[in-house]
Amino acid sequence: MTKKTLLLFLVLLTSCSESVDLIVHNANIYSADKLNTKHTSFAVKEGKFVYVGGDEILSNFSSSNIINAQDLPVYPGFIDSHAHFYDLGFYLNQVDLKDTRSMEDVIDRVKEFDAENNKDFILGRGWDQNDWNIKTFPTNTILNETFPNKPVVLRRIDGHAYLVNDSALRLAGIDNSTKVDGGEIIKKGNKLTGVLIDNSMRLVDDIIPEPTKDESIKALLSAQDLAFKNGLTTISDAGLSKKQIELIDELQKQGALKIKIYAMIDNDPISLEHFLKLGPYKTDRLNVRSVKVYVDGALGSRGALLINDYSDRKGYRGIIRTPIDSINNLAFRLAGTKFQMNTHAIGDKANRIVLNAYRNALFDYRDPRWRIEHAQVIAKEDFDLFNPKIIPSVQPTHATSDMYWLNDRIGSSRAKFAYAYKELFNKSKVIAFGTDFPVEDISPIMTFYSAVVRKDINGYPGEGFQVENAISRVDALIAMTRYGAYANFEEDEKGSIEVGKLADFIILDNDLITSPENRIPLTNIVATFINGELVFNRRYN
C-alpha cells in the first residue's frame, strides 16, 4: 500500500466514526439496568447515552471531550427520594445546632452566631435532646435571659419541634390558653416552656420573616452546589408550595439551576387546587405530580402516632396531624388523578392509617406507585398490607441515628419491627432511598453505608443494628438510582446507564459494591454529570 493510499484509508476510517459530545472509557461502569450489566465505556450526544459498551468505543466514536476513567467506578447519578432541597440553602445560613451536648452548648452557639450576624430574628436548627445528658425537652429559661427582646426560633433536628423564646411566643400570640389541633404546646406546671410540637409550630411560622427572592435564589444555588458535590442529580423535594415550585422552574429554565427536582406539592389549599386543576407539570428538569401529606410527627419529639403508649411517656400515643377522614377523602380524590400520594407516616398507628387508606382508594388501580415516606415503625401484622402498589420511601441513616434511644422510646418488642427495610423491600418488590436532609447528612454514601452495614459513622454497633434488615449492596445502589427513578415515574428517562436515557452519571474514587466495609464512608465523588454536562469536578477539565 502506497503512502497516499494509506493516508486515504485512514481518512476514510476516521470519517466512519460518529462524532459525539463526550466519551468515557476505561471505566468500571455499573449500569443499574434490570440485569445489572457492567460496561467499560459509553458515548453521550445531545444529553443522552447513545452507546454503552466496551473497548471498541474509540474505533467507532470520536469526540473532542474524552475521559479516561482509569478504571474508576461509574454509577448513574444518585437520586435522593426524600429530602428538603429548598430548605437546605436557608439552613446553611442559620445557627447550626447539630452535635450540641447540652442547652448551654445551644446558647453558646446562638450567642456566637448573633455576634457575627446581628440579625433582628434568629433562626437555628439541629438540636436533639436525645444527645444530651438530660434527655427531657429543654425549657427556654436561659434563652429568655440571654435574648430577652430578640425573637429566637430553634428547630429540632427532625424538623418537628421548635424551641422558642418568650419574645417569639408573644409575637406569635401564644399563651397558656392556646390550643392547636395536631400539635402540642409543652408546659411545665402552668408555664410555657417554649417547646412547640408539629402543627403548633405553624403559629410561629407565620411570624418568621419571609425571605426575599434574592435570598431564595442564593439558598437554592448553595444547596445545588452541595448536592452536586455529593453526586446527587435528582432530588425529590418533600413539600413545596406553588410559589417555591414556580421559582425553581424559573431558575431551571434560565439555566442557573441544573439539578433535577421531583416536586411533592404541599397539601395546602392554594398549592393543591392549583396543580390538581393544572394537572401534572413536566419539563426536562422539573416533575410535579405528587402531593406530600403528613399523618403524624417524629419519634424523636414523640409526635409519631403509635397504637399503644410510648414506653417513656405513659398514657400518651403521639399526634395525628391530619384527621383520618381527611386522609381517606384525599386518597379517594387523588386516586382519580395522575397525582401520586406521598404520605409521611412514622408511628405504627400512622402507617396503619395510611396503608388502609391506600388499600381502599387503590383497589381498582394497577400502577399508582403511591409512597409511604419514612415507614419507620410497622406493626408486625401490617407488613402484609405492603404490596407493589405501595413504595416504601425510606431514609437508612434514620435507623443508625435513632438506634441509641429507640428502645427507650417504644420498647424492644416494637423496635424489632422498626426500620425494617429488607422486609419492606420483600413485600413491595421496590424500595426508594433518601436522606431527609437537612434532618440527616446530605451524603448518599452514608445512606448506602447505613443500609448495607447498619452502622453509624463510628462503626457502631459492631454487629450492626438489626442486620436481618440490611439491604444487599447491589439492591442499595438500585434503590438510589433506578428505583428512585421508578418512584418518580421517570424510569424511562433516568436511573440507569442505558442507550436512550439521559446522561446523568457520577464517577467515584472507590467502588461501593466491592469496597471493604470500613472504606465505604471515606468514598468521594470525583465528578458529577447531568445530561452529559460536567457540573462538579475534582479531577477533570
Topology (elements, then pairings):
Layout: H1 3-16, E1 18-19, E2 22-25, E3 28-30, E4 38-39, E5 41-45, E6 48-53, H2 57-60, E7 61-62, E8 66-68, E9 73-76, E10 78-83, H3 85-91, E11 95-96, H4 103-117, E12 122-127, H5 141-146, E13 152-156, E14 161-164, H6 166-172, E15 183-188, E16 191-198, H7 201-205, H8 213-229, E17 232-240, H9 242-254, E18 260-266, H10 269-278, E19 281-282, E20 286-294, H11 324-335, E21 340-345, H12 348-361, E22 370-374, E23 390-394, H13 396-402, H14 406-415, H15 421-428, E24 432-433, H16 444-453, H17 473-479, H18 482-487, E25 505-508, E26 525-530, E27 533-537
Parallel strand pairs: 1-7, 2-8, 3-9, 10-17, 11-12, 12-13, 17-18, 18-20, 20-21, 21-22, 22-23, 23-24
Antiparallel strand pairs: 2-5, 3-4, 5-6, 9-25, 13-14, 14-16, 15-16, 19-20, 25-26, 26-27
Helix pairs in contact: 3-8, 11-12, 13-16
Structure summary:
The protein is 32% helix and 24% strand. The chain has 541 residues and is α/β, with parallel strands linked by helices. Among the domains are: 121-205, Diaminopimelate Epimerase, Chain A, domain 1; 295-433 and 458-469, TIM Barrel (Alpha-Beta Barrel).
Output the structural class.
alpha/beta
Distance between the termini: 40 Å
Largest sheet, strands/sense/barrel: 9 strands, mixed
pLDDT < 50 stretches? 3-14
* Rg from alpha-carbon coordinates: 25 Å
Describe this structure in words.
The protein is 32% helix and 24% strand. By secondary structure, the chain is of the alpha/beta class. It has 18 helices and 27 strands. Mean pLDDT is 95; it is low at 3-14. The two termini are 40 Å apart.
